[in-house]
Every structure is written in structure tokens, then in C-alpha cells.
Amino acid sequence: MPTFRTPPFASRSLTSTAHRLIGAIEELKAGRGGLFVVTGSNGSGKTELADEITRHLNGWTVAQSTALSWHVHSDNRVITHLRRQIGGSDLRSMTDRPNTSVVMIVDDAHWCDGASLRKLVEMVTSMTAGRLAVVLMAADGEDGVGEPSMSQLRALSHASLGLAPFTVDDIRAFGLSHAGIPLGPHTARSIQLISGGRPGRVREVLDTVPREHWFEEHPTVPVPKVWLTSFDRRVTDPELIPALQAAAVAPPFYHNPPALVLHLLDGDSDPLEKAFEAGFLRRRTTNNDESIVFPNRTDRAVVLARMSPVRHNRLHRAAAEFYRGQGDETRALLYDARGLPGPDEHVAAALATHGDASGKEGRWGDAAENYFHAARISPDPAVRNQRQLASIEALIAASNNPLARQYAEAFSGDSGTPAVDVMLGYLALQEGRRNEATEHLDRAWRRLGDADDAMLRSRIASRLMLLAVAEWKPERIIHWFREATREPVDGAPHLVETYSMAQLGHAATAASPATSSHPTDIPLPLVRRHDMVNGWLAMITDDLAGARNLLGRPTSSEGSERINTWIDAWLAQTHLLMGELSQALTVAERGLSRVENFHLDLLEPLLLRTCIHVCHLTGETARALEYQNRLTVSSESFMVQRIPSAIARLEAAVYVNDPEATNRAGADLTALAAHHDFSQPGFWPWMDLWINHLIQSDRADEAEPLLEAAEARVANSGIASLQARLMASRGRLLIQRGDLDGGIRLFDAALAHISNTSLPLLHASLLYDYGRIIRRAGRRAHADALLAQAEERFASMNASAFVEHARRERRAGGVGVHTPQPEGVLTAQEHEIALLVAGGATNQEAAQRLFLSAKTIEYHLTRVYRKLGIRKRAELATALARI
Fold it and tell me: Which stretches make up the HTH luxR-type domain (predicted)?
């Protein structure tokens, strides 16, 4: 075979960690330092992470050192190495300088000498001019050899990050990158189970056999010789083997209680105690459940590889006997299935029945496992195929999309049946692939025949309802609901979601959306679907407290991560509207983590929109831009991706007062709205932002018809926030046309309209806009009072950027809080502009910061130059200093 050249590889987890770390480093301001601690197992990719950081940190000087165990007592060893890379005799003088940005990376930091660590911490905490980021990379479980310890450093750090093991997708990608090996999903899963996903261990498995071995149809996964040798060197007492075999029977993701292991040892605790004393086994407690586990996953792999088939089957049968004795028939059947020497329809049918029961209760993970093992031991190929599909459907319902995608590969070339098509379409829908989802789901419906049962027909219609939600077609949601419930299919687990989505469709097509109570006889995991819809509806109808209560309920460990991510999207938006900015960002980030872990790309823009909004309010513009750059949607994306993405871009452009970007975003939304109706009251509010921009840009003739249409649409909605926002827009229009008193009356009416609601962010924003507009119209005292209220409200929610905006407006008005200025020479507005420009701001930058147009800045600067007797901006700073 030809020689394969290894390209660079970075796992999804590593790339994500690098992305977060680079973002945190780049956010450091001048005169600030940051300490970051990264931990991972040996071979987890810490070195590759350092390479990623070095490759992507533009404009930073990077120095890197590796601590060595035999130099741990050599004081300043690491700091000396770092100093030599940066240059100069004094590290502080070389890093703490204006316009200097330095990153210092220490690999294997748990072996770093204490003097170097203390020096690095002291430098980070005492920066005055430059930017310094110190990244310490250490092995899991290692706490260092002195002071400060890794535990102390984590407590002092700005961020402590962990490198997750390889996922199955990572292992498959690594196989291609490392040696051009196209691993199948089942093979990659087996490698992950025996290696724990540790990159170094994965490499050992791949390299232990010739490359050609992996090209076989169903390659066996070998145990590397180095693992066998290590095991034999450490396990010298033969009496340990029975205990290790008993502990190895339970898969890594199973609960493995001590009582089970003792049962498999016929009650003999001596081998078990010896295994604990030697460190080959240990106890792990999770949620008060104690399990016996292997600290070293490779030891379990060796034990299983050397266990005879007879011993293997006997132990599994004994484990099944143990669970039957405890009344846990489901677990007993799973051990039965794992210990069978061949197919067995009796056990398979029982497992499939338990899978049905788990699905009806919303325990999708359990359902998937039952179906999977039922399929594995089914003797009939057609029945096996049906149960495999049921297993994948359950994985998708549980949002384990990565594993579902791997198993679905077996069906990707076979879309000849509606059951296969609906499964592939359902998966593509969750992963945000619009064309693929539409093709499969439409074809599934077309291919239904008379012989297909009502359950399959109902399930396909239910998936088409979800497609209608993703495409934001409320009328089609209702249409497919009728199809899904046309024939009785009582007890079908998908029906709970079907009724929840129908409620959403009815609310979106009603003149006034409203929440409704959910049934009381459904399992808790399925109740969350009703919570999600009712929480969303409560949020858009201004019942923010109700929305927070519904969406903020504790999440069941069962159920669907997809539903939990929808909940995170609306809970984050609710926190934002309530002015709880920190909570909003925390929840949105949690949702984005779910998006990444479960491949729920469909929901990413909903979460990013909140993140962008919060960061602009708090003045974290670089972070806001980072989030904004992740809004990578296209014309092939679903509408629930395109709509919030376009709105987020409009909101961001308005926040930074960028007229060109606002024009682009507004034009995009207008074009989108021209062929797709998403202006149902409350669901996707954006029109008032665009109308306000048009009015401010002297395009009132374009704004007028849009405003009239929006007012008509929300008139009977009962949503006070929407009506208040449009009242304020109408007030803007009147003031722009010269009717100042009429505009003031409408702004007052808008504030009164939301006076009995709890909408702190909207209230502060209306006060701010009202004050800005009437200040420019000459009502400075009135404007100052409004801006003072806005400033106080923004301050209460830690919206620091808008606190400063309000203060600037007040200073420019010259009535309230303002900076000293040359009396009788410059107006307050002129002085504010002059200070910004003298400080180096361009006209455009000054316009954005003061929420004025560039032409207005130019007009005021001309007056400033004339009053100060200067001709160009280079003279401005000196002229201001003279007066």
C-alpha cells in the first residue's frame, strides 16, 4: 500500500477548548494578566492544544517550556527557559510594556519548580502596561510537588479547562489522520470503550496490528502488547484474577455495585479486598450509588481479552440471576443478551418490549440500549433491521446524535422504506441539514402504502411537524398535527411532543398567543416538552416570571437534550429580558455546550443571539464579535436558524451604531420577510429596530408603511412590550417630522403601557432612546431626567456599556453629570466630540460611540475648529489643553 502522510489533527474537544482559551486570552486588556490551567490525561492532546494556541494567536509573542521531573528542585529552571525565548535579562521588563502581548505556556506544569510558578503568578497579578497570559498544562490527578500546588493554581486561575477524551467521531477522524484508516462506527466505538478515548491509548490500539488489518469488513479490536506486558508486570498474584474478572463483566457505562461483584465471586470477599489493596479496583460514588471501577481502563481490556468464552458467559448469566433476584428484569435481560453464545428471539422480544416501555416514559437512553441488544440477538434479519431502526430513533430522541449518526451509516445507502427515510430525516433535522431532512421526510410520506401501520404514519407526520417548526410554518404545524392524530395510536411516545408542537402552531396562528396547562398523566421527562412550549409562550407574552419558573425547573436526567437545549435558548432570553445578564450568558453557554456535544446545530443561532446581546450590553465587544462570527448560516439553513441569526446581526449593528451594517441586516430581514411570514406577534420581534433606523436615517417614507403594518399586526395581540415599542417608533416618526409634543406624548404612553409589567431591559432601553431623542430636540432638562433613570436601571443590571452611553448623553446635554468644559466656548456636545477625536477616534468611531451620524460629527468638528481657531484635528489636543 502507498505510504500515508500524516496531516495535522485536532479533536472537536481540543478545538473547542482552544477556541475558548484563545478567546479568553484575547480579551485581556492592557495592564492585565491572566492565569489559565488546562488539565488532561496523559496523551489527551495538551501538546496539540499548545500548538493550536500558538498557531492562532496573532500579534502575541509566545514562549513555551516543558517542565521535567528531574528538574523539579532546580529553582527558576522554567522561568529561565522562558526568559531566554523572549529575550532580555529581565522577564518583567520585557513583558510589562505598552503595546506588548505575551503568552507563556508551560507543559507538564505539575513538574514545574515552585520558584518559577511563584514568579509567573506574581507577574500575572501585577501587570501595569502590557498583556500577559500564562497557560499551565498539567496531567489529571497530579497536584504538583510543592507550593503553589496545582489545586492552588486552579483556585487562582481566570479559567480552569479540561481536555475531554476522544469521542467516537474523533477516533474515526484520528484514524484517517494518523494512518489513513477508515474506521467504521462500531469499530471506533469498541476502541473508545477499551481506551477510554485517551489519544495515546487510541494510537497504541491502531498501531498494534498492520494497517491492512483495519481494512477488513469487521476488524477485531486488539489489545496492544504494551498493555498486556504492563498488566503482567503488575499483577503477580493469581488470586486477583477472579476479582478482576467479576469486576470486568459490567461495561464501563453500567452501574457495577459491590453486591453484584461479590455475587459473581460466590460471596468470597478476599480476592476483592486484595484487588483494592493493590490499586487495581476502586470505589466510585455517583448520586449515592456505589460502583466498582477500574482506575486504568486498559486493565479491564486485558482481563476481558484473556477471559475464556465459557467463563464470560457464565459470569453474565450469574449477573442476570443477581438482577432477577432484585426484581430488575430489564437489567437481567441485558446481561442475558450479553452472555448468549448466539441469537435468541425469546430474549430479544423481551428486550424490545422493555424498550417500548422505556420510550413511552421518555427514558430514551434506556430504550435505545434495549432495542440495540434486541437487534443484536434477533435471528430474523427483517426483525433485526426493525429493532436497529428503533434503537437509532431512540438515540435521536435522546439527542445522542453522534452515536445515532454512526449507527445510521448502515442505512445511509438504503432509503427504500419509509421507516428508514423518517429516521434519516429526523437525524438530519436535529443536525441542521435542511435539504437532507426535507428530502427524507417528504419521501417517507410519499412512500407510505396501505400496508404500513398507523403508528408509522403518525410518526412520519409528527416528524413533518418538527420540520414545519424548523421552517417556521405555523399553518403546516397544524396540518401535520391533524395527519399525526388522524388514526388512534394511543400510547405512542412521540404523541406527547406532537401535542406540544400543535399548541405552538395554534399560538402562532392566533391573534393573541397564550399558554395552556399540560396533561397531568405523563412522565416527567415528557412534561418538559410542554414546559418548553409554555415557557416560550409566556416569554413572548411578557410573563417573564412565569417563563422563568417553567423553563427553570430542574431538568430530568432522562429525556431529550434537544428539548433541554430549546429550554436553555428561551430561558437565556428570559433572563436577558429581565436584566439578569450574567444568568442569561451562563444559560446560553450551557446550551451552546449541548449544541456542541450532541450536534444540535439547528439551535445554535438562538443561543448565540442572546450571547451577542448580553456582550454588547456589558461592553464586551470583542467577545460579542466572536459569537457573531459563529453565525454561519446560509440560504440552505432552516428558518429557525436564519431568522434569529439575521435579527442578531441587526441588533448588533444597532448596538454599535454601524449604519452600513444596519442597512445590510435590515435589508436581509426585509428580503427574508418578503417570501416568508415570521412576523407573528411576539415570536421574532425585529421590525421596530429597522423602522427606528429608517427614521433616524431620514427615510421616513420607507418607515411609515412598515410601521402601519406592524401596528395592525400587534393591535389585538395583547402583548404590551410589542405595542410599547411601536408606540415609541411612532413617537420617533412624529418628532422627526417636527411634532415634538406629539412624539413626547407617544413616548410617555409607551412607558405607561409597560408600567405594570416586569420588563426591566425594555424599560431602560425606552428611557434611553426617549432621552437621546428629545435631547437632540432641545429638551435638555427633560432628557437628563430620563437618561438618569436609564443610567440607574442599566447600572442595576450591570449593563456597563449602556451606563456609559447614558452618561455620555447626559454630559453632552450639559445639565446633569458632566465633565468640566470651557464655559462659553464649546457646547457640551461639542466638548464631548472634541475629547473623543483628540483622543484618536475617527469621525466614524466617534459617531458610533455617541450614537450620532458621521455627518453630525463632521458638522460639530467644523464648529469646534472655528471656535478654537485651529484648522486640523492634529491641533485639537493642544487647543483643548489651553482652555
Answer: 819-883
